[in-house]
Amino acid sequence: MTASDIQLLAIALAGVVFLVVMIVSRLKMHPLLALMVACVAVGFAAGMPEDKLVKSIVTGAGNTLGAVGIVVALGAMLGKILADTGVTDGISEVIVRKVPVRLLPWAMAGTAFVIGIPMFFEVGLVVLLPLIFSVARKLDEAKQVRGSAYVYVGVPVIAALASMHGMVPPHPGPLTAIAALHTNVGATMLYGFIAAIPAIILGGPIYGAWVTPRLAVRPEPALIEQFSARSEGTNQSASRPGFGLSLLAALLPAVLMLAHSIAELAFDKGADILSVTAFLGDPVIAMLIGVLFAALLLGRKGYGRADDLRAALSASLKPIANVLLIIAGGGAFQRVLTDAKVGDAILHLSQQFSLSPLILGWIISMLLSVSTGSATVGIVGASGLLAPLAAGQAMNVPLLALAIGCGSLFFNYANHAGFWLVKESFGMSMGEATMTISVIQSIVSVVGLVMVLLMNLMPALV
User: Keywords for this entry (predicted)?
Assistant: First the structure.
């Protein structure tokens, strides 16, 4: 490890600290401005040429908006229709009526576990926000939870979605590790499910029960209204859709994505049906179909005129404009750290370790993910470094792929777009966001590693 590697790591750490100070100190700088300033400061400190730095900022912001921003916008539209037509209110009423308050976190974790099988973390959260806000609002109004009802309901969802995202194929992280290590999808998936269950329990309902009384989180009133209450311009006298139609409207994007995941396992590569399911199951297309379905089937009854529906969809984007731009800023910061070669410095550092491949894979992936703000960079870097080792000695390679995936989840913080999505959606401070998504993902990551080491003591599945 060279002096330049140490310098790069110091710059990356200083950049994150500088970012946090700008936001939480007396400056109280808007997160988007703070992220842009941090990008420029880190880029110049790392010696990036001006043109490359600008390109990194633009590319990082654009890629993040393309991958996450459109989905978030479509999710806001879908959430608005579901709220205005009484769908989320009806579903949440059934949940609150049928499930005791003390068991609600477990019910929400179970829901997110299923939703999270085919969905990216950010997409799953966007799909479930209307349900989270609607259930939490009812608990909040009834004063049934000590502390923040939004944390009480939201923490189990975050834990479940994060666990599935990092541990279980067909999510891109685990699939990337599987491809690089040339291992078995089925075995990795089974191991992932086994590891995810205790991770979700400890990081979700159990941690949530501890942290809820300690936080007073309450989202912006505009977002609460958007996702959980009927607004002006809707047909207030219209009856709610039936429970079956409500579930279909709310979960159609998840169904389309899950269908693609099942098709990938059921059919050979190159089968014609896979191109169809891949298109319909793409997050952007699935969310678009969900919005159109809800607008056509629910919009006619829920809104008096077509103009009312269009006005409602336009209004749905206003509360999330701030969220979208901050997410884009997080993507820009992540790209600058990556292009500054911070990941290479971490790889050089990792070569100094002499550890079990499972622990080493987790550590390398964790360090890369934390330092660059990209779980993908963590997984790609760790898998590439350990692929020769996996091929050259007898070991449980599916567990190595799982360990790498778990490492990529650790301490999701200010250089991750997902951190900003949670923070801004729930109206959290930096400290509150750290106590939720950052700590939750760290718990999930560590529990996942412990499960990997325990399963390594047992006979291999393949």
Answer: Cell membrane, Membrane, Transmembrane, Transmembrane helix, Transport
Is 68 within 8 Å of 287 (Cβ atoms)? Answer: no
> 348 CB contacts (<8 Å, ≥6 apart)?
1, 2, 5
Paired with 303 in beta bridges are 234
pLDDT, one tens digit per residue, over 206-224 is: 999 999 999 999 999 988 8
Which residue, 260, 254, 257, 253, is CA-closest to 275? 260
Helix (H) or strand (E) holding 192: helix 185-201
User: Are 128 and 115 in contact, with CB atoms under 8 Å apart?
Assistant: yes
The three-class DSSP label of residue 99 is: coil
The residue segments making up the domain with residue 269 are 58-455
Closest alpha carbon to 361 in 324, 318, 408: 408
Rg (CA), the chain: 22
CB 333 within 8 A of CB 35: yes
CB atoms within 10 A of CB 112: 29
The C-alpha atoms of residue 249 and residue 302 are separated, in whole angstroms, by 13
- Contact present, 72 and 331 (Cβ < 8 Å): no
Residue 364 token pair: 């390398």
Handedness of CA 222, 223, 224, 227 (dihedral sign): positive
Give SS3 for 268: coil
Residue 118 has pLDDT above 80, yes or no: no
Judge whether 53 lies within some domain. Answer: no
Residues 387, 371 contacting (CB under 8 angstroms): no
pTM as predicted: 0.83
pLDDT tens per residue across span 273-284: 999 999 998 888
Which letter does DSSP use for residue 435 in this model? Answer: I
Q: Which residues face 234 on adjacent strands? A: 303
23 in a structural domain: no
Q: Is residue 21 part of a domain?
A: no
What's the total number of domains in the chain?
A: 1
In whole angstroms, give the CA distance from residue 371 to residue 411.
10
* 231 pLDDT higher than 70: no
Distance CA 258, CA 114 (A): 9
Q: Which 8-state DSSP code applies to residue 242?
A: P
